Amino acid sequence: MFKKILIANRGEIACRVIKSAQKMGIKTVAVYSDADRNALHVKMADEAVHIGASPAAQSYIVIDKIMDAVRQTGAEAVHPGYGFLSENMNFAAALEAEGVVFVGPPSPAIEAMGDKITSKKIAQAAGVSTVPGHMGLIADADEAVKIATQIGYPVMIKASAGGGGKGMRIAWDDAEAREGFQSSKNEAAASFGDDRIFIEKFVTQPRHIEIQVLADKHGNCVYLHERECSIQRRNQKVIEEAPSPFLDEATRRAMGEQACALAKAVGYTSAGTVEFIVDGNRNFYFLEMNTRLQVEHPVTELITGVDLVEQMIRVASGEPLPFKQEDLKIHGWAMESRLYAEDPYRNFLPSIGRLTRYRPPVEGHTPRGGIVRNDTGVFEGGEISMFYDPMIAKLCTWGPTRLAAIEEMRLALDTFEVEGIGHNLPFVGAVMDHPRFVSGNITTAFIAEEYPDGFQGAVLDADTLRRVVASAAAMNRVAEIRRTRISGTMDNHERRVGDDWIVTLQGVEYVMTISADHAGSTVQFDDGTTARVVSDWVPGQPLASLSVDGVPVVMKVAKISGGFRLRLRGADLKVHVRTPRQAELAKLMLEKLPPDTSKFLLCPMPGLVAKVMVAVGDEVQEGQALATVEAMKMENILKAERKGVVKAIKALAGSSLKVDEVIMEFE
C-alpha cells in the first residue's frame, strides 16, 4: 500500500479524499493556488505545495506544476478528484511515465471514454443504444445550426471534454443554436482548455440515471447500483438520490450489466460512472462515461456501505475487489443536496464573499434512526472565491425508506446555518417538500416546469404555517419574560406579560391565548384548537429546535421589530407577535415601497463584464441580449426585460462589478 498520496484538487473533494487516506494510514499532500492558501484541504493534509496563481488555468490544470509537486514531495500516487485534470489522458500518461500511480483508470481508457464523441462511437460499435446526434466536430455556428436542423429541435449542444454542466446548452431554434454554440465553445475553452463541441438530440421527459461501476486490475468489475440525478438546473445536478424511485429490478440489472460490459471493453479499472437517459417506458440510452469519481458518490456509499475512495486507492495499489456482485445489496435510501453559492432569489446567480456563519448539522446517527453526512471544503470565516466552482458542501442523509431519507434531509437543511453569501438552501428545502418530488414523479425538466418564473420562496401548507405561528408565540413569550427580568428598572414599576396575543403571518391574523408551565407552552387559537410547544430556545439563539404537538420544527431565527424572521422548509417568513392594541396600531402604519430600478440594467452578481452588445441610442427589444457577465467559470447573458432605448452605458467590457452596480440605463 502507498505511504503518501498527492491530491491534485481542491475544495470538498480534496477533503473527502484526505479523510479516506487518513483512515487507511496514508500520508497526504495538498496542492493550492493563491486563493486557496488558507483553504480547509490545505489545513487537513500532512503537507501542502503552492502551485500558482488563483485562476485554475494557471494552477490546478497545469500538469507541469502538479508533476513538480509530486517530485518535490515524493508522493507515490496521485488522486485527481473530479474536474480539473481528473479525465485528462495526458496527465495520467505523465504520471505513468514518471512511475507514479494514477488513482484512476489507465490513460487509454480515459482516452476512449473520457471524450464524449469517442465514447459514443465505441458504445455504438459495442451495440449499446445511444441518443441520435452528430458525432463529428463542428466548425462554426453556421454548421451547428445546419446540424441541429437535420437532427431536429430541441438539441443539446455539449462540450466534448465537458462536465459539471459546463459548456452545455439546450437549443429550441436556430437563434438559440447559434448563441448556444458560441457560449458552449467559450465555456469549454475556459474550463477545460478544449473547445470542441458536438450536438445530440435532446430527449424530452427524460430521467438522468447513472450506474456506479468499480473494476480492479484482475478482471473483476461490479456495479454498485444506480443514482437518480434528474433534479438539475442548467444541466447541473442539484439533488441526487440512490436508488432511483423509477427503476425496477430487471431494468437495474440490465443497466448495470451493460455498464460493466462497456467498462471491460475499454480495459477500465478504478471507479467510474456510466450515465444513461431513461424514458417513461424504462428504455435507456447511453450518454457518456465519466472516468472518475462522481460528485454524488456519497449516496452510493450510504446505501452499499462501500467507501469508493478507499476502493479506488486499493485498486490502484493492485489489490483485488473484496466483494462480488451478489454481495452488493441496496440498503435503505440516500439523498444528497448540493449546497451552492448561488442566490435562488436572483435566478441562481453566483454569489461570492465571506462565510460569516457556517454551521452544518451534526453528522452521524439521528434520533429518528437516520444518518446525516456533510462533505465540505469550507469553514466559518472562509471565502467563496470567484475563481472556482460555487459548491460549498454536499449534505447527505440516509433513511430506511425514501420518505424517511427525505424527512431527514428536511430537518438537516433547516438546521444548516449559512450566512454572508447568497446560497440555495431555501431552494433545495422547497424541493424536498414539493409533492411531485416526494411522489418520485420527476424528470430532468422538473425545475424548469415547477419553477418557470424562478424561485421566490416556498409556499408552506396550512398545518406547517400553524406550527410556525404557535412556535413564534411561544418564543415571543420567552423573550417577553426575559425582558421583565432586566435589572435596574424603575421602582414600583412591574411589567406583566399578558396572555392574549395576535400573530400576523403573510397578511393573516391568528388570535390566541398562551399559557405556560415548566415543560412548555400551550397555545389556544380563537377557533378553540390548541397547540403544545416544547423548546429550550432562548432569545439570541439563531437556531430554534422545537416540538409542536410532537412534530419536530427547526427554524433559523432573527429578531425584527415586533417579531421574528423565521426560515424553514425553503420559506423566509416575517412573523409579527403583538398585543391586541399593538396589532390595532400596526394597521395604521404606512408601507415602505422599494425603489424603482426598471430603467436600469443591474449586474445581478459579482463578476466581470465580458461583452456589451448594444450602444447608446440603440432600440432594444424584449429578450434581446444586452451584455455578458462572467462569474465562477460561467457566462451569463443578460437580456432586456422589455422594449426600450439605451440612454447610457455605465460599464465597459473588462469592468469588474459588484452586485446591483449599473451596467446601462434606459430612457
Strand order of the largest sheet: 14-13-10-11-12-15-23-21-20
Give me the number of helical elements. Answer: 17
Major β-sheet profile: 9 strands, antiparallel
The percent range for strand residues is 25-35%
- Principal-axis shape equals globular
Low-confidence stretches: none
Helix content: 25-40%
- Provide the residue-averaged pLDDT: 93
Summarize, please.
With 667 residues, this protein is α+β, with helices and mostly antiparallel strands. 28% of the residues lie in helices and 33% in strands.
Polypeptide structure, described:
- With 667 residues, the chain is of the alpha+beta class.
- Helix 5 crosses helix 6.
- The strands form 9 sheets. A 9-stranded antiparallel β-sheet has the order 14-13-10-11-12-15-23-21-20.
- The N and C termini lie far apart (69 Å).
- The mean pLDDT is 93.
- The chain contains 17 helices and 40 strands.
- Helix content is 28%, strand content 33%.
Keywords:
667 residues; alpha+beta; 9-stranded antiparallel beta sheet; 8-stranded antiparallel barrel; 28% helix
List the helices and strands and how they pair.
Blueprint: E1 4-7, H1 11-23, E2 27-33, H2 40-44, E3 47-52, H3 63-73, E4 77-79, H4 89-98, E5 101-102, H5 107-114, H6 116-125, E6 133-134, H7 141-151, E7 155-163, E8 166-171, H8 174-192, E9 197-201, E10 207-215, E11 221-233, E12 236-242, H9 249-265, E13 270-278, E14 284-290, H10 297-304, H11 308-316, E15 333-340, E16 342-343, E17 349-350, E18 353-354, E19 357-359, E20 364-365, E21 371-376, E22 383-384, E23 391-399, H12 402-415, E24 417-419, H13 425-433, H14 435-439, H15 446-450, H16 462-484, E25 500-505, E26 508-517, E27 520-525, E28 530-535, E29 543-548, E30 551-560, E31 563-568, E32 571-578, H17 580-586, E33 600-602, E34 607-612, E35 619-620, E36 625-631, E37 634-639, E38 644-649, E39 656-657, E40 662-666
Parallel strand pairs: 1-2, 1-4, 2-3, 4-5
Antiparallel strand pairs: 6-9, 7-8, 7-9, 10-11, 10-13, 11-12, 12-15, 13-14, 15-23, 16-17, 18-22, 19-24, 20-21, 21-23, 25-26, 25-32, 26-27, 27-28, 28-29, 29-30, 30-31, 31-32, 33-40, 34-36, 34-39, 35-38, 36-37, 38-40
Helix pairs in contact: 4-5, 5-6, 7-8, 12-13
